[in-house]
UniProtKB/TrEMBL annotation, chain A:
This is FAD-binding molybdopterin dehydrogenase. The lineage of its organism: Bacteria, Pseudomonadati, Bacteroidota, Bacteroidia, Marinilabiliales. The keyword Transmembrane does not apply. It comes from the Bacteria. Residues 1-220 form the FAD-binding PCMH-type domain. Keywords: FAD, Flavoprotein. SUPFAM superfamilies: CO dehydrogenase flavoprotein C-terminal domain-like, FAD-binding/transporter-associated domain-like. One of its GO terms (molecular function) is oxidoreductase activity. Transmembrane segments: none annotated. InterPro entries: CO_DH_flav_C, CO_DH_flav_C_dom_sf, Diverse_Substr_Oxidored, FAD-bd_PCMH, FAD-bd_PCMH-like_sf, FAD-bd_PCMH_sub1, FAD-bd_PCMH_sub2, Mopterin_DH_FAD-bd. PROSITE patterns: FAD_PCMH.
Automatic annotation (TrEMBL), chain B:
Residues 43-119 form the 2Fe-2S ferredoxin-type domain. InterPro entries: 2Fe-2S-bd, 2Fe-2S-bd_dom_sf, 2Fe-2S_ferredoxin-like_sf, 2Fe-2S_ferredoxin-type, 2Fe2S_fd_BS, Aldehyde_Oxdr_Iron-Sulfur, Beta-grasp_dom_sf, TAT_signal. The lineage of its organism: Bacteria, Pseudomonadati, Bacteroidota, Bacteroidia, Marinilabiliales. This is (2Fe-2S)-binding protein. The keyword Signal applies. The keyword Cytoplasm does not apply. Gene3D superfamilies: 3.10.20.30, [2Fe-2S]-binding domain. Keywords: 2Fe-2S, Iron, Iron-sulfur, Metal-binding, Oxidoreductase, Signal. Transmembrane segments: none annotated. It comes from the Bacteria. Residues 1-16 form the signal peptide. It comes from Prolixibacter bellariivorans. One of its GO terms (molecular function) is metal ion binding.
């Protein structure tokens, strides 16, 4: 690990004004410390924000505000979250291990880097790590890679589970920029597609802080599912995951949400399939058609064609589970 | 050091003399200086481990695991992967299980840390330690201290409703010897 200076700013203002081009904020450290050990990330200053940012979950009339420092476990076991946003809790509990969830912060989860093997191996080309070096995964080992939204420059996927639920639930990200001004971003605009500059995972301005995440009220707390398919039963990143949520009026779907992890550079929303389901009866045929519509837009890489049938099956199964899931 | 001091003097007087150098070049020089001349930082810290206070000075880069093992001779916590993937380094921080290999020692200040050495009460083993012995919860023993720390948390947090639930909540601790059945049985025994 390269040497760095460690400081612990007391206020958001102090944190923002101490940040430089070569500094990093550190929250739970579960991703950053690992990347620093591997010398993939080499900040020369760490700003410890664990006492700087809010770590409360606050209920408002129109939704809930989750402070950026709330630990992943604390969100997942929160009574209000379990009652009104159980999909979020379920997705979090499918991620990482109890130890890591106890340490990981809400803000850090959004900013975790990809798990593409080329990103992690300094001897291999990776445009996300070093733009211009090439994408080794494009024609190499891309089994874990994207099936939609990728470019020739990068086929990496975003590894988060929590973010898939936040994408499905139309969350918003509250940020404070280096100049002190505040901004709210739609969750779907927060992460980005790789295009020609995959070194940027998201649209967070340089040195800005995520201060909190807002999740609006919804009618999805009765019919939801987070289905994560992976190489082992637990403690592994998703090959494909599906967050599904239905707002039901009898057997008729008034609104549907479908999002996936493990398929793209950002948590992916299947909006065409959602539109198809709206107003339809909750039948096996309609669920299968929704899965077909979603999969229609995918284009697998050389070694991950298996992800397409996996995705279709996962969408269908998750939709069926929505009907029986009890919060 | 003399080399870098000379380099610094030479380059900074050169910079002063050549004040017509464009800002972009100066910014580049600043970047180079920041990147290559960061010295290692030693930080005085206080840690509370197994109810004992320790004052020591650590490199900012030191992880809690390295400080426990190398500085304090608390070698019960093991280094398996050093990357958060195996759970061998699991300790309790403020009563919750955490990975000491991904925790910077400087960030563990002001928190109550419990390691495997802090579980027993004098010569009396913790019930979970007894249960691991009784149920063959280990073979080589390398993963065991981490397993026991997670097992204690698993019972404390009430995730012992079924074998599946125990396995899910113990999934952050890998065992190369495959002592999983014994581990699960030990947890079930303590949970009763
Ligand atoms: C072995 C292993 C398995 C895992 N498995 C999964 C999994 O299955 N599913 C899953 O979803 N995740 C998984 N994770 C990832 C884990 O969820 C993330 O590492 C964690 O959420 C990151 O949060 P943190 O607080 O520790 O971030 P840190 O490591 O502290 O920070 C990560 C990045 O975010 C920046 N940052 C942090 N907070 C803020 C803020 N408020 N504002 C601005 N910048 C900020 C930091 O500067 C840094 O660049 C796994 C991790 C490990 C090590
Ligand atoms: S040594 Fe910490 S998780 Fe493996
Ligand atoms: S007992 Fe040998 S690794 Fe678990």
């Amino acid at each position: 690990m390269k040497p760095f200076e460690y400081t612990k700013p007391k206020t958001v203002r102090e944190a923002l004004s101490s940040a430089t081009r070569h500094s990093h904020y550190i929250a739970g450290g579960t991703n950053l410390v690992d990347l620093m050990k591997k010398e993939i990330d080499e900040p020369d200053k760490l700003l410890d924000i664990t006492n700087t940012l809010p770590d409360q979950i606050e209920v408002k009339d129109n939704g809930v505000v989750i402070g950026a420092m709330v630990r992943n476990t604390a969100i997942a076991v929160n009574k209000i979250i379990l009652e009104s946003w159980p999909l979020l809790s379920k997705a979090i509990l499918k991620g990482a291990s109890p130890q890591i969830r106890n340490m990981a912060s809400a803000g850090g989860n959004l900013l975790q880097r990809t798990r593409c093997p080329y990103f992690y191996d300094l001897t291999l080309p990776c445009n996300k790590r070093k733009n211009g070096s090439g994408c080794g995964a494009l024609k190499g080992n891309n089994r874990m890679g994207a099936i939609i939204g990728y470019s020739d420059a990068c086929v990496a996927v975003h590894p988060s589970d929590m973010c898939v639920a936040l994408a499905a639930l139309d969350a918003k990200v509250n940020i404070q920029k280096a100049d002190g001004s505040e901004e709210t971003m739609n969750f779907l605009d927060f992460h980005r597609l790789p295009g020609t500059n995959p070194e940027k995972d998201n649209n967070l301005p340089e040195n800005a802080l995520i201060t909190s995440i807002f999740v609006p009220k919804n009618n999805f707390s009765k019919h939801f599912e987070y289905l994560k398919l992976r190489d082992r039963e637990s403690y592994a990143f998703a090959l494909v995951s599906v967050a599904a949520a239905l707002d039901m009026d009898g057997n008729q779907i008034s609104e549907a949400r479908l999002a996936s992890g493990g398929v793209a550079h950002k948590p992916w929303r299947w909006t065409k399939a959602e539109d198809f389901l709206k107003g339809k009866q909750a039948t096996a045929e309609n669920f299968a058609e929704a899965a077909r519509i979603a999969a229609e837009d995918t284009a697998p890489l050389s070694t991950n064609a298996f992800k397409v049938p996996l995705l279709k099956g996962a969408i269908e199964t998750a939709l069926h589970t929505c009907l029986t899931n009890k919060a | 050091m003399s080399m870098s001091r000379r380099f610094f003097l030479k380059s900074s007087s050169a910079l002063a003399a050549l004040s017509f150098i464009p800002n972009s070049v100066k910014a580049f020089y600043q970047d180079v200086k920041e990147k290559f001349f960061v010295k290692k930082q030693m930080i005085p810290i206080q840690l509370e481990i197994n109810k004992k206070q320790y004052s020591l000075t650590v490199d900012s880069r030191a992880t809690l695991l390295d400080v426990l093992r190398e500085e304090l001779n608390l070698t019960g916590s093991k280094k398996g992967c050093d990357h958060g993937q195996c759970g061998a380094c699991t300790v309790h921080i403020n009563g919750e299980q955490a990975l000491s290999c991904l925790t910077l020692a400087a960030m563990a200040q002001g928190k109550a840390i419990t390691t495997i050495e802090g579980l027993a009460d004098g010569d009396n083993l913790h019930p979970m330690q007894e249960a691991f012995i009784e149920n063959d919860g280990f073979q080589c023993g390398y993963c065991t201290s981490g397993q026991i720390m997670s097992a204690v948390a698993c019972v404390n947090e009430g995730h012992t409703g079924s074998v599946e639930e125990i396995k899910e909540y113990m999934s952050g601790n890998l065992c190369r010897c495959g002592a999983y059945n014994g581990i699960t049985e030990a947890i079930q025994q303590v949970a009763k």
